[in-house]
Amino acid sequence: SQQGEEDPQALSIQEGENATMNCSYKTSINNLQWYRQNSGRGLVHLILIRSNEREKHSGRLRVTLDTSKKSSSLLITASRAADTASYFCATPNDMRFGAGTRLTVKP
Amino acid sequence: KAGVTQTPRYLIKTRGQQVTLSCSPISGHRSVSWYQQTPGQGLQFLFEYFSETQRNKGNFPGRFSGRQFSNSRSEMNVSTLELGDSALYLCASTYDPYNSPLHFGNGTRLTVT
């Protein structure tokens, strides 16, 4: 079974709006990572948050981690059409990826 | 610094044939992992190699195998291809798969007819 599970499966928003994606996992982790994938391409690493961190920022990205609930969220602020992609969380302990959230940002 | 290179980019094979895919990791990365991506199953972990040794293996049949060479380049092989093996095969390299980001290639799109 997938370790990380993203929610929602698909999200459609207007440019300028914020997008929030959630990830749940099942076992203990050292860190959790988020990746982006443009259609038919490889995944690109966005951000890594360690198990002793609660929040991390990178540009327009904000990631939170709640180890007590085994969940993480990725917030993209002021979204752009170029943010249209699939987003995955990953738990490296068992090298599993979730099913991903497909984000569509309409211009 | 060159990224992860996967060859070939596209491949069309017939059921029953075998196929070999190649992955050249980023220089200095000794860990290479392989993933299968399909619309129905998402990203599925195949196996991970570190310094020529398979350290982790996903839940795939024995038709799927791999190896890693002394220069960290890796190959995966699928024998007796089935229609369901049609997928995007992704390779990723890293220094430490448990604590460092994975760097992905753009994949090999395999179509089995």
Distance between the termini of chain B: 37 Å
Q: H/E element string of chain B?
A: EEEEEEEEEEE
Helical run tally of chain A? 0
Mean of all residue-level pLDDT scores of chain A: 92
Low-confidence parts of chain B? none
Structural class of chain A: mainly beta
Structure summary, number of beta strands of chain B:
11
Specify the structural class of chain B: mainly beta
- The secondary-structure element order of chain A is EEEEEEEEEEE
* Beta-strand residue percentage of chain A: over 45%
Continuous helix count of chain B = 0
Low-confidence stretches of chain A: none
Q: Please summarize the sheet with the most strands of chain A.
A: 6 strands, mixed
Cα distance spanning the termini of chain A:
36 Å
Q: Which geometry of chain B do the CA atoms define?
A: globular
Residues in helices of chain B, as a percent range: under 10%
What is the helical fraction of chain A, as a range of percent?
A: under 10%
Task: Give the overall pLDDT of chain B as a whole number.
Answer: 95
Give an overview in words.
The complex is a heterodimer of chains A (107) and B (113). The relative contact order of chain A is 0.36. Chain A has no helices and eleven strands. The mean pLDDT of chain A is 92. Chain A is an all-beta fold and 107 residues long. Helices cover 0% and strands 56% of the residues of chain A. The mean pLDDT of chain B is 95. In chain B, strands 2, 4, 5, 6, 9, 10 and 11 form a seven-stranded mixed sheet that branches. Chain B has 113 residues and is mainly β. Chain B has strands spanning 5-7, 10-13, 19-24, 31-38, 42-50, 53-57, 64-68, 74-78, 87-94, 103-104, 108-112. Chain B contains no helices and eleven strands. Classes of the chains: A mainly beta (107), B mainly beta (113). The interface between A and B is medium-sized, with 23 and 24 residues.
